[in-house]
Amino acid sequence: MHSMKQRLEHFRFVRLLLSIYRIKAVRALVPLLIIGLVYWEGQNELKQIHLGMIIHELKAVPAPAILQMLGISLLSVAVMSTYDYLIRGHFRLQTSYLSTFRYAWIANTFNNLIGFAGLAGAGLRTLLYKKSGVPSSVLAPAIVFLSPLMITGLSLLSWCTLTGILPADALLHEHRWLVFAVWGMALYLPFFVILQRSSLFAKWINRGQGRTSWLTVAASVGASFLEWAFAGLTFWIIAGQLLGGAPFVTVFSIYVVAAIAGILSMAPGGIGAFDLIALLGLTQLGIRSDQAMAVLVIYRLFYYIVPWLIGLVLAALEIGLPGKKGTERSGDRVETPVTVWQRIWGWPGQYTFLSDLGVWALGKLVLASGLILLLSAATPELLYRLRITENLLSLPVMRISHHLSVLIGFMLILLSRGISLRVYRAYVWTSLLLFGGAVFAFTKGFDYEEALFLLLVGLILWISRTRFYRISVPLSTRSTVWWLALTSVVALSYYGLGSYSHHGFLKHLPAGIRPEWLRQHSNVAVTAIGGLIFSWLLLTMLVALRPQRKADELFADKDMARLEQFLAEGWGNALSHMLFLGDKSFYWAREGRVLFAFARVRDKLVVLGDPLGPVGLVNDAISEFRQAADLYGLAVVFYQATPAYLPVYQSQGYRFFKLGEEALVPLENFKASGPRNADLPGVASRFEREGYVFEIAEPAHSADLLQELRALSEEWLDGRLEKGFSLGWFSKPYLQLAPLALLRGADGQLIAFASVAPGYDGHKTVSIDLMRHRKDTPNGTMDYLFLCLLEWAKSRGFRSFNLGHAPQPGAGRNTGALREEKVARLVFERGGHWYGFSGLRRYKEKFGPQWEPRYLAYPASLTLYLLTLDLVRLVSRHPGPEDKE
């Protein structure tokens, strides 16, 4: 019994540790602590690094050596495709060998660079294989099977280090904490083998087909071993080329220990920990810190950056081609190819445009192009190329080309966001700038490598040109500030790199060689500031001239006569009367048979209620409206959606948040006396006995009555601002459109009123909109007004009376609610969105209503709590003086 209790205590302790680890801040501390430890260990070596010396070492590498290093790096990345061929055979995935290789390259290069514990690679594999028609029931176990085996090869190499086959005694003796890291990685291999052979793994991953065979386990470890062995071989070849020969076993051992540190740091690509440990190991061999850092820079460039750029190209061309299951998706933009290049890339069949990730890859290629131009301009040119350029062109032309290259680099960085958002004008300007950047890269110093890369990116954009369909997109203040900060950091980095690299490079030039261009260090600061300022000025001009005003014209239809005629046909609902307030725009879909009434807030079009029109046309109408909004980068949201239309919204990919419920009183069986409203007859009797008078004033209303209503309304508001959008406000033209319910005292003074809103549904429903009363009214005033209204509506033949909206008490408050729903609820309550609704549900219960839910339907791409902030802003957007008259 005592031992069982101890086991439970240990289990609780483990659970406590896991709970602590789940906290994001704690998880972020792990890589920071490891990197901090490594930095503390290697701070002396880091102080000896000089940027100018590194640039000098890199510039001295001959072209044949570069080709050899690049070739082995690409081969090493290609070897990683054995993972995908392994799961292809083990799980019998129906994909071709070439497709499997492409998927592997994209997933592995993104995973190498971005990392996140393999999540990047797993997510991309899921997307790519699902596009090929691999069912989720097969794909999910395959991805789970693949994830834990990727470090088994490094674990096997750790055993080689511990047994002396790959000796790293000097590095482990100098930094003893690395011994624990190596042992921890080594113990992973037996754990992996036991897991693979377990019955639980056979049940969950192998889908009941028995334990994993020893051959598959060996193949798994072998695939991982090939990855890490080739990566270490790449590191040794690069070190040998830059250092003039290096012992294989020693350098490979250093790589293994550094890779272990990088894995344990959990940083993307092991950046920081891997580099510092490798630096410490290489300097122990007597290699200068500058030379060791040059090895790491080349390794990062050839093994991570260049393959990732190729992966971007493959992703831009690959992702978005249709899967075997077809391309029909309701509400999405589905198109067919119009270029021969798209057919050359793929195979016979239908094609669609790039998915979000594919366009994201195009945007990052453009961003990389801008950074490459700036990097090329910040670092000194090769002397022999400068001589060639000076012989062909004049020095002023080279200077102008240099400055223009920097300007184009900044512009490309800024325009990369527009490429990711599919803006056509961004595509046009980017294409022109890529061509210009290629020309100026060539004329400033014969940099044909950069020029070819820019032309390649331009070619890929041209192949994908039909994918840029948006006319414009909204620009938010937050996005503008973020990009201003990013470009400012880039400009500062350009200045620092340019100043130090030119200074260091000049110190190592042969005596008597002093190119005039390289001596002018002050031009670096001028070029950085000028490029930053002029790029933003040009972008501001483009934004100022952008055709966003066309979006305003497209969504500016407020034809009240057409609206009145449409509602007269019986296509309205309880919210339709508020469309006459004039604060909403109209979009007519399906040749004018379906109406969307909406208001714009930032990059969202918020539709009030459901679309109006025949139910059979609504799905296609929503797709039409969303496509029209998408041309300008706007999202469509439905506010106070009813349950009847939820299946339509769900087919469009929408998510839902319950806003509250609508109180609908059935009039046919309504009686003032009932179990819920036992006190109402007494209220009616008291007010009738005291001489209060209820009346319905039909339009048109006199100026004196409207003035009397305004005075009462101002007293009720008591200095508060009117709300809008889903709530009516005091507007004389609006009040003239419908009857008014008036309650006067025995002396004839107006003490309360309510505006009546027809339902435009064939005389079935009527509701109230604006309700106001004086401060000193007796208790039960609004009860009596509602009772009289209900009796009036019943006598007029209406079936239902809508008492209006009330928040759902439990929405966002339940323990099982999502975090974003809880935040949304808090924003609604504290932001004043539900102003005037406090206690309404309890008050309306006395009239015996039937409660019908109301929802917020929003695209999955939107964040709920940010959307709620926009909705609070929209409802709180009080009307101007011209709207109140």
From TrEMBL:
Enzyme class label: transferase
Every Phosphatidylglycerol lysyltransferase C-terminal domain range: 570-858
Recorded topology in the membrane: Multi-pass membrane protein
EC number from the UniProt entry: 2.3.2.3
UniProt superkingdom: Bacteria
Record's keyword annotation contains Disulfide bond: no
Compartments where found: Cell membrane
Transmembrane segments: 61-83, 103-124, 136-157, 177-195, 215-239, 245-264, 301-321, 357-377, 397-415, 427-445, 451-468, 480-497, 524-545
Family to which this protein belongs: Belongs to the LPG synthase family.
Purpose of the protein: Catalyzes the transfer of a lysyl group from L-lysyl-tRNA(Lys) to membrane-bound phosphatidylglycerol (PG), which produces lysylphosphatidylglycerol (LPG), a major component of the bacterial membrane with a positive net charge. LPG synthesis contributes to bacterial virulence as it is involved in the resistance mechanism against cationic antimicrobial peptides (CAMP) produces by the host's immune system (defensins, cathelicidins) and by the competing microorganisms.
Protein's UniProt name: Phosphatidylglycerol lysyltransferase
Organism: Paenibacillus phytohabitans
Gene: mprF
